[in-house]
User: Which sequence fits this backbone?
């Protein structure tokens, strides 16, 4: 259950990547696929970077 957000983000990232590939083949609008792919990468990296940290005593 702890890995559910990571799995969902990876699925969203794969979805955004596939839409971007379709947009590069001119099957899907590029102006929609670029923000979706960027948001997927940004959310995934932000979640991985925002883990539990030691904040001091």
Assistant:
């Amino acid at each position: 259950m702890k890995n559910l957000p990571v799995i969902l983000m990876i699925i969203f990232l794969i979805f955004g990547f596939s839409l971007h590939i379709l947009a590069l083949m001119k099957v899907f609008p590029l102006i929609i696929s670029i923000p979706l792919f960027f948001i997927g990468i940004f959310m995934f990296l932000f979640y991985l970077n925002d883990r539990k940290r030691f904040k001091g005593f």
Q: What stands out?
A: The chain is about 70% helix and 0% strand. The chain has one domain: 4-49. The chain has a mean pLDDT of 88.
